[in-house]
Amino acid sequence: MGNELIQLKSVEKYYQGSGKTLKVLENINLDIQQGEILAILGPSGCGKTTLLRQIAGFDHPHTGNILMDGQEIVKPEVKRMMIFQDFNQLFPWQTVMQNIVYPLQVHHVGDSVRANREIASKYLNLVELDGFEDSYPHQLSGGMKQKAAMARALALQPKVLLMDEPFGSLDALTRLSLQNLLLKVWRETGVTIVVVTHDIQEAILLSERIVVMGQRGSGGIKRIIPNSLARPRDVGTKGYAELYEQVYALLDV
Amino acid sequence: MNNESYHKLKTRLFWMIAILAVWELTAQSGVFPTAIFPSLLIIARALGDSVVSGEIIIQTGFSLALILQGLLISLLAAIMISSLAISNKMVDGLVDTLVAIAHPLPGIALLPLIIIWFGTDTLSILVIIVHSVIWPLILNMMTGFRSIPTIYKEVGLNLGLNRFRIIKDILIPASLPYVLSGLRIGWARAWRALISAEMIFGAVGAKGGLGWYIFKQRVFMDTPGLFAGLFVIVLIGIIVEDFFFAVIEERTIKKWGMS
């Protein structure tokens, strides 16, 4: 296609256990396209979080290369913002507003505190969290904390959002509303999104392509499934059931 | 003020009044001579005279100024040493060993050595205060640094923070609950060491401090004045431990949901 943002070439990662080597990632070849939503789906322990952490730059593969815009990824950077599953990714000693303004100040994004606050307000509005600027994180619900974390990441205008089961700890209704919010954010900002999940429905509702990974220890990508269902999607969308069947069969659960 | 702390305050007031009443009854009964067991009124008058003459205020101010200097020096040094230790394994080992050696040493046990090394001036008292505060502070700060959830550091790295910012803007605020409890322990140890040192050194500097004030009253057999001095020590202890630290906690770690 020619507009790969991130390329993974023959990526391998293994952990040395008691006497035996566990292959966590084996011969991973994957291109992440500019502007797409890519879902990485697999059972727990299949290495999908490990994979995401290599892309983020928190960890490095034993062999193979991970490139972004043709450059080797060596460390975490602002252009690849990670959203964790853990609700405690906001700094509890800062208000919601301060959490978002602080990294903007560090990187001199706006030329004044006021300019940075305006940028922060814009992104708080985007994630529908207006009115909670002066709340501290512990006063927010889990869903609101994830929204604030998204606003903090987006305000830095990253090229890609790396999301590690971001809605995994939320109740079903909140998860649905945050999925819709994520889609709105994607439409309005055009940011590339890589989302790790173990929820087939989430993968189908969100993504353009679904990377299905095998059981623990199998270490690799089973198949990459294109997902061209019409948007907006729900479980009644034409083709949903067939796609679900196809993914489910691959997961051999 | 919430209901629970209001109740606690009420209970405490009740018992304080009860204890004072028992004291007064004992004093009035004449079982002990007034010279060794003065009544509340006599003590209050001694305190009042001392306040009016300014003596006790100057002595208290002298002691408080010393301890504040000591706390500030210790806090800055502890932050620097702990930051170095967390960034470098060698320094970490050294600091760990130093804390293990120095932490169990009561400040007062060092007095003879400190007199030989530094004389009997305010500098010596400052050294004792810093010794009393700095080790528990480092110990707590290191525990705090080590117990910070990995996610804060990872977010910090992802946000592109440099080492200095990670320490200043993440490690220190995130370990504030530990720093505060280290300061509480440090304060208690320093306050005790200070009073003892002032008694042993006699009039250090020009004025002498609260410890010297109490000691002097015994020499002159001024029992009411001695109790007045003790009263001030208790009062300062309560103000610092129950109000000063409580207010800081209320405005930081409690407000942030970190306690």
List keywords for this structure.
A: about 250 residues, alpha/beta, 2 domains, six-stranded mixed β-sheet, 7 helices, about 25% strand, globular, B: about 260 residues
Give the arrangement of secondary structure elements.
The complex is a heterodimer of chains A (253) and B (259).
Chain A lengths: L3 E13 L4 E13 L3 E5 L6 H9 L6 E6 L2 E2 L7 E4 L12 H11 L6 H14 L15 H14 L4 E5 L7 H18 L2 E6 L2 H7 L2 E5 L7 E6 L13 H12 L2
Parallel strand pairs in A: 3-8, 3-9, 6-7, 7-8
Antiparallel strand pairs in A: 1-2, 1-4, 4-5, 9-10
Chain B lengths: L2 H27 L10 H14 L1 H33 L1 H14 L8 H8 L3 H25 L3 H9 L4 H12 L1 H26 L7 H11 L3 H29 L8
Helix pairs in contact in B: 2-11, 3-4, 3-6, 3-9, 3-10, 5-6, 6-9, 9-10, 9-11, 10-11
Please characterize this protein's 3D structure.
Chain A is an alpha/beta fold. Chain A folds into two domains: 1-79 and 159-253, 3-Layer(aba) Sandwich (Rossmann fold), CATH 3.40.50.300; 87-157, no CATH class. Chain A contains seven helices and ten strands. A six-stranded mixed beta sheet of chain A has the order 6-7-8-3-9-10, with helices on both faces. In chain A, strands 2-1-4-5 form a four-stranded antiparallel beta sheet, with helices on one face. The longest helix of chain A has 18 residues, at 172-189. Chain A is globular and about 50 Å long. The model of chain A has no long low-confidence stretch (mean pLDDT 94). Chain B is mostly helical and 259 residues long. Chain B contains eleven helices and no strands. The two termini of chain B are 17 Å apart. The chains are: A alpha/beta (253), B mainly alpha (259). Chain A binds chain B through residues 56, 58, 75-78, 80-82, 84, 86, 88-89, 91-93, 102-103, 106-107, 136-139, 156, and chain B through 149, 151-152, 154-155, 157-161, 165, 169-170, 173-174, 176, 252, 255-258.
